[in-house]
Every structure is written in structure tokens, then in C-alpha cells.
Amino acid sequence: xxxxxxxxxxxxxxxxxxxxxxxxxxxxxxxxxxxxxxxxxxxxxxxxxxxxxxxxxxxxxxxxxxxxxxxxxxxxxxxxxxxxxxxxxxxxxxxxxxxxxxxxxxxxxxxxxxxxxxxxxxxxxxxxxxxxxxxxxxxxxxxxxxxxxxxxxxxxxxxx
Length: 160
What we know:
alpha/beta; 4 strands; 43% helix; globular
């Protein structure tokens, strides 16, 4: 499902003139978490986005609070990217908003460029898993991601 969202976003970004670098070539290709930001640095990426779907740890009450999407950043230079993507999700994705959060997550921490990790939903909930299996909803996730990236890049124009 993450790969399908990434490919839908890649198609939209490529049509808009962006060069998109993926860390894997097909859904079965495994790339370790540590190798993902390493690839981004080695390939000269300007931004790093890691797409995920959340689960809950053993023992956590799944009904204690609403669950949905979250956008994480680590470095201060990634905050604006996180804000732009988070705002795009808030305006388009009809799931609970778990917020824009600082997180000590390897893929965001190890990235030299602005980097975020997006948890699109909490897939242990049957209604959210069913949305994830819907191509139209995955495309809406991709549209939201692209809208946030475009807003961030537009805000960077003219800055030193």
C-alpha cells in the first residue's frame, strides 16, 4: 500500500516537472531504514519523504483516542516541510488528525535535507485498512502529499 501511494505521488510529481527518486524499484524490494536516508544523501535529493502506515504497540488501548494520520519531523530545517504536508492532509484526508510531531525517527534523523515521515493511517482498524485498499483513497493520499510538497517548495522560492 505504501508503494502504491508513493507511485501515485511520483506520477503526479513527475508530471509537474520534479525528479523523483524512490528507494525501491518494486513493492517486494526491501531497503533497510538506515539505507533509505543514505540513498537520499548519495543521490543528491533535495527532500526526503518516508511513507508509512501506523499500528499500535501491544497493550495500547486502541479506543483511548481517535487514530489517523501523523506527520513527523526531526531537524528544525524539516519543520516547514512537515507543516506544509500536515496542512495538506488536514484539508483533504477525512481521518483523525494526530498532528505534526517531532520524533526521533531514524529516517528523519539521518537525513541531511528536509525530511519527514508520514503515517498515512492506523491500519489495524478495519475501516482504515479498507480505505488503504481503495485506489481512489490512495490517490487522495498522494494528492495531499503532493499539495503539501508544492506548498513547501513554493515557500522556499526566493529564500537564500
